[in-house]
């Protein structure tokens, strides 16, 4: 075998898995399509986020929290190996609400999840005045926020670069510009072929190709029930300190600019931004933080999330082809620590591996 593991997909998910496997002494080769791919890892919001995750599936809430708790040591490792600061901050975060009704509706959902978790789910409800004490620059239209002390954010592009460096430092191979077109199960292992008919044989294969799994998944016996969901983002010029903590729609990045996002649209494989959505995002951000009315927009873009039918990750072993795994999620940043950590126990059939039954493809069987 040329490698014990071939990982298809060189984004945050694939690199995190590779890093965890390399730490376990496995040989790993990553096949990465390159910049022609729909790269969620280059277009995301950079949140390490707990609140609102798993409101209807407690197992996802627990999985997310476990990754968030492991994030500091994970980030420290990547910084040490790569030499890049990731600017991780985990000082809490908000979901800001513009009406009392929506704030109360979400509070009830959070209370329900807390009850299902035996009281172990951290959040606070902050009215306008309490939030303004923490965030003096919020506007008068803000009703309040839900606050979770375990939330945070990271520089996602540095995380991507840092993971790439770390994987190579640990002996992993990253083949960039190699779009996998065919994966053939053999009597022992798998033969992987790219668009240039370059091939290799690996003992095991992990499909972490984002939206590319829609075509590659069936070759390995996966249904791969995923779809693209478009989100758009705005970046402003660098500004003086405007906010102390991130929220899911507006955050101040480590370089000083303001990142605005959280749109969603079902438009298929379309990653082109539109003026109407950008204008709506900007207007909403100004309602939250009026000082943004005078900020200059430097750039904007659209990117595609990878969404399962219920929005949760999918972790699946192939029944037809043992040794093949399917890993996908739309929270690759938040879950990077779990993917580099305990998910490696699942991929290597360790005696102690996480319970992933809630995240199998069979949950979609009707």
Describe what is shown at a glance.
With 366 residues, the protein is α+β, with helices and mostly antiparallel strands. 28% of the residues lie in helices and 25% in strands.
What does this structure look like?
Helix 2 (58-82) crosses helix 5. The radius of gyration is 21 Å and the shape is globular. It has 366 residues and is α+β, with helices and mostly antiparallel strands. The chain has three domains: 3-80 and 156-226 and 310-364, FAD/NAD(P)-binding domain, CATH 3.50.50; 93-149, no CATH class; 227-307, D-Amino Acid Oxidase, Chain A, domain 2 (2-Layer Sandwich), CATH 3.30.9.10. The chain contains nine helices and 17 strands. A hairpin with a 4-residue loop joins strand 13 (250-252) and strand 14 (257-260).
Question: What's the topology here?
Answer:
Blueprint: E1 3-8, H1 12-23, E2 28-32, E3 47-48, H2 58-82, E4 93-97, H3 100-116, E5 124-127, H4 128-134, E6 144-148, E7 152-153, H5 156-169, E8 173-176, E9 180-185, E10 190-194, E11 199-207, H6 213-216, E12 227-238, E13 250-252, E14 257-260, H7 275-288, E15 297-307, E16 314-317, E17 324-328, H8 336-340, H9 343-347
Domain count: the total is 3
Low-confidence runs? none
Characterize the overall form: globular
Level-2 CATH architecture of the largest domain: 3-Layer(bba) Sandwich
Rg of Cα set = 21 Å
Please report which band the strand proportion falls in: under 5%, 5-15%, 15-25%, 25-35%, 35-45% or over 45%: 25-35%
Task: Record keyword descriptors for this entry.
366 residues, alpha+beta, FAD/NAD(P)-binding domain, D-Amino Acid Oxidase, Chain A, domain 2, 3 domains, eight-stranded mixed β-sheet, four-stranded antiparallel β-sheet, 17 strands
């Amino acid at each position: 075998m040329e490698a014990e593991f071939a990982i298809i997909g060189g984004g945050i998910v694939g690199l995190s898995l590779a890093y965890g496997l390399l730490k376990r002494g496995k040989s790993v080769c990553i096949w990465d399509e390159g910049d022609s791919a729909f790269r969620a890892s280059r277009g995301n919001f950079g949140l390490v986020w707990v609140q609102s995750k798993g409101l209807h599936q407690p197992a996802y809430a627990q999985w997310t929290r476990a990754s968030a708790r492991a994030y500091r040591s994970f980030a420290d490792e990547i910084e040490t190996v790569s030499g890049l600061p990731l600017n991780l901050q985990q000082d809490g975060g908000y979901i800001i609400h513009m009406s009392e009704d929506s704030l109360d509706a979400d509070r009830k959902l959070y209370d329900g999840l807390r009850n299902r978790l035996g009281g172990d789910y951290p959040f606070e409800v902050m009215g306008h005045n309490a939030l303004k004490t923490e965030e003096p620059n919020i506007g008068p239209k803000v009703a309040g926020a839900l606050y979770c002390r375990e939330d945070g954010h990271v520089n996602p592009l540095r995380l991507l670069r840092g993971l790439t460096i770390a994987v190579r430092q640990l002996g992993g191979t990253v083949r960039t510009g190699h779009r996998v077109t065919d994966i053939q199960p053999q009597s022992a292992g798998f033969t992987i072929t790219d668009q240039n008919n370059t091939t290799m044989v690996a003992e095991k294969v992990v499909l972490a190709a984002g939206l590319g799994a829609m075509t590659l998944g069936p070759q390995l016996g996966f249904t791969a029930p995923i779809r693209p969901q478009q989100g758009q983002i705005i970046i402003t010029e660098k500004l003086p300190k405007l906010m102390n903590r991130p929220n899911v729609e507006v955050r101040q990045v480590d370089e000083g600019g303001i990142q605005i996002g959280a749109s969603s649209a079902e438009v298929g494989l379309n990653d082109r931004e539109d003026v109407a959505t950008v204008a709506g995002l900007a207007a909403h951000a100004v309602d939250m933080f009026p000082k943004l009315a005078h900020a200059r927009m430097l750039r904007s873009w659209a990117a595609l999330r990878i969404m399962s039918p219920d929005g949760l990750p999918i972790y699946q072993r192939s029944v037809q082809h043992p040794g093949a795994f399917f890993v996908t999620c739309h929270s690759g940043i938040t879950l990077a620590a779990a993917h580099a950590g305990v998910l490696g126990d699942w991929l290597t059939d360790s005696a102690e591996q996480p319970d992933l039954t809630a995240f199998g493809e069979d949950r979609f069987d009707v």
